[in-house]
Design brief:
Distance between the termini: 40 Å
Structural class: mainly beta
Helix content: under 10%
Largest sheet: 7 strands, mixed
Number of helices: 0
Length: 111
């Protein structure tokens, strides 16, 4: 059974940075793609970034140039480096892999 655990969220001022982590267990992480989603209060969950097993990446237009998705297969962990954060980045961030969701980590950006 696959389990995903996110960490690294918190409160940060606009312009600051955070790095989210997604630790995976129970699956062969290296052969699966991974994605980060976010859900802001009152809004639908949206896809933020993806990374394939071959490390091909995609990004939501509004985070291009600010966010970087990466993975460390040896550690079964994925990451989302978030720089130049804006108030509109405030949301619960979820990772998804192997058809499984993590429980999310809250990112709050103060303006």
């Amino acid at each position: 059974q696959v389990q995903l655990v996110e960490s690294g969220g918190g409160l940060v001022q606009a312009g600051g940075s955070l790095r989210l982590s997604c630790a995976a267990s129970g699956s062969i992480f290296s052969i699966n793609s991974m994605a980060w989603y976010r859900q802001a209060p009152g809004k639908q969950r949206e896809l933020v970034a993806t990374i394939g097993s071959g490390s091909t990446t995609t990004y939501l237009d509004s985070v291009k140039g600010r966010f970087t998705i990466s993975r460390d297969n040896a550690k079964n962990t994925g990451y989302l480096q978030m720089n130049s954060l804006k108030a509109e980045d405030t949301a619960v961030y979820y990772c998804r892999s192997s058809g499984t969701w993590g429980k999310g980590t809250l990112v709050t950006v103060s303006s």
